[in-house]
Design brief:
about 100 residues
C-alpha cells in the first residue's frame, strides 16, 4: 500500500470500512476518497504478484489444504474461541479471497 501512495489507515478503511478501522484501534478514521481506490487495486495486484512464487511451489492439494486451514482458523477467531488481530475479533462477514489457487 505504501509503495502505491496509501497510508496504513487509508488501506484499513478501504479494506474494512470506517467502523472496522475504528474497532482495530485507528482514532477517528475518515472515509477515503474514491479516487484512491485504483491505488489500492494496484497494491493488491502487486501483492498478488509478489506472493505467487511462494504458493506456486505448492501442489493443488497443498493449496487447497492451506486455504481450508486458513478458513478454519478464521472461523475459530470469528467464533471468539481465540483472540483475533489487533484489538478485536475478525468480523463475521470477513472473507479470505486472497487464498485461492495460483
Amino acid at each position: 500500500m505504501r509503495r502505491c501512495g496509501l497510508s496504513a489507515r487509508a488501506a484499513m478503511v478501504i479494506d474494512l470500512g470506517v467502523e472496522q478501522a475504528a474497532r482495530y484501534g485507528w482514532s477517528d478514521p475518515q472515509p477515503v476518497d474514491a479516487a484512491l481506490l485504483p491505488r489500492s487495486q494496484r497494491a493488491e495486484r502487486i501483492t498478488d504478484e509478489m506472493q505467487m512464487p511462494l504458493y506456486a511451489c505448492l501442489t493443488d492439494g497443498q493449496r487447497t489444504e492451506f486455504a481450508r486451514l486458513v478458513e478454519a482458523l478464521a472461523a475459530t477467531v470469528r467464533a471468539g474461541l481465540v483472540a483475533g488481530p489487533a484489538h478485536d475479533r475478525v468480523p463475521a462477514d470477513t472473507t479470505w479471497p486472497r487464498f485461492r489457487s495460483v
